[in-house]
Amino acid sequence: MYAVDETVPVHPDVSAPAWAAFGVIDLGRSVVWHRDAAALDALHDAAAEPVDRSVLAEAHGRAVIDDLVGRGWLQRPADLCTDYLLTTAQIEVTAHCNWSCAFCPVSLDPKPRATMPMPLFEEIIGKIAPYETIRYVTFHFYNEPTLDRFFTDRVAVLRKHGLKLRLFTNASNLNAEKIAVLQQGDTLLQLVVNLPALDDGSFRDLTGSRGLGRTLDNIEAALDAGLPIELVVNHDGGEGRRRLDELRARFGARGVDVRSTLLSDRAGALEHDYHQNVRIEGRLSGCAWPVNHAHFSVSGDMFICCNDYYQREKFGNIRSGSVHELMTSKEAVLLRRRVFGVSDAPEDYICRTCHDQLPDFPRRQFRPLASFPVKGCRGGSCA
User: Fold this and answer.
1) Residue 381: predicted pLDDT
2) Pure H helices in the chain
């Protein structure tokens, strides 16, 4: 199951051809099938730690090992964690927000106001545009993109390069001018609106804002303009379920997808009721965020993922080279080696407090081998 940057979990097609012995899910989220079960045995033998190629060849046959090396399924230790496949680019065009949502770190530690200069934005877009695997760009990172004074100009840059925008917003500043900009062409892929409640009291408690009326007016105007809208509600059951039902009752008839989104304490950045108390010991076991997604800070730093609120785990700055150079830099490779358990992660590493590392996290992208039924095993135990 894959759920990175998806509105709902996505399952690869695992209908095996008759000749297949096993399959491997590649970075493009498709299954590559292999006909020889001996190759699976070789992969298992080499999974825990490096094994000399000659030892593997003696145990499983040189042709099997040569094939796996040719596919990139067996790699030299020094080459591990250099591969990547970008599917989104998430750009922090501003570093501030006009709401203070209880389920967001901004409510505890808001950042100073900052706006990405247009020349830096244009450099980033120019460097990501050649990646045809990028499905869309976003303008958010714990901020409100519609507060950006360069909003219109940025959309025009995306349109020029043929890139799609998935705009995450609270809609508080989604005025008629911005709606008109989003109507032009086919740049807008989706408008994703954070709307946690419909009653003034709950809305004020959850967002720290008294602007519910204006937000609802803007959403209605966007719907009248024909923009593709999705509403998301952060909740963990109980009262949140009631709020979700109310939103569906109001907007469902207009064809709006109203869905709940999983709560996250952003790798421990939130406290009290939203704190998830995650702590991972030992080696980490993989995550798609530093493999499939390019995150850019308001100053041009590339960093690990959306849960790194303070942007501590950096690959480098886009001004210093190409996207490929940063994604394959020694900093980026070391970061991924730690995330995938090839190297030990420091005790204070951000991923140790992130729910994406929990084996039973329902939207986990990479799972430890023992959680899959392999070679006659079920539930991590073998008959």
Assistant:
1) 36
2) 37-45, 53-60, 62-71, 118-128, 151-161, 176-183, 200-207, 212-224, 239-251, 289-292, 323-327, 330-339
The CA–CA distances, whole Å, from 318 to 50, 142, 326 equal 33, 20, 7
Q: Long-range contacts for 40-46 (Cβ within 8 Å, ≥24 apart)?
A: 40/374, 40/375, 42/68, 42/74, 43/68, 43/73, 43/74, 44/369, 44/374, 44/375, 46/74
pLDDT value of residue 211 = 96
**Matching residue, tokens 């596919």:** 71
Closest CA to 128 of 312, 366, 348, 327: 327
Beta pairing, strands 377-378 & 381-382 = antiparallel
Q: 156 phi and psi, to 5 degrees?
A: -65, -35
Cβ density class 274-306: b for 16+ within 10 Å, e for less = bebebebeeebbbbbbbbbbbbbbbebbbbbbb
| Phi, psi for residue 294 in degrees, rounded to 5 | -105, 120
pLDDT given at position 361:
81
Residue pair 148/94 in contact (Cβ under 8 Å)? The answer is yes
- The C-alpha atoms of residue 233 and residue 235 are separated, in whole angstroms, by 6
**Long-range CB contacts (< 8 A, 24+ apart) of 198-206?**
198/243, 198/246, 198/247, 198/250, 199/246, 202/239, 202/243, 205/102, 206/101, 206/102, 206/103
What's residue 34's pLDDT?
Answer: 95
CA–CA distance, 298 with 294 (Å, rounded to integer): 13
Regions of the chain with pLDDT less than 50 = 370-383
Q: How crowded is residue 76: how many other Cβ atoms within 10 Å of its Cβ? A: 9
Distances from the Cα of 3 to the Cα of 20, 165, 236, angstroms: 26, 19, 18
Helix, strand or coil, per DSSP, at residue 158:
helix
Considering only the C-alpha atoms of the chain, give the largest distance between any 2 of them, rounded to a whole number of Å: 72
Tell me how long the chain is. Answer: 383
For residue 231 the two structure tokens come to 């509403």
Specify the pLDDT at position 380. Answer: 36
Measured CA to CA, the distance from residue 238 to residue 219 in angstroms comes to 26
Amino acid, single-letter form, for residue 173: N
Amino acid letter, residue 378: R
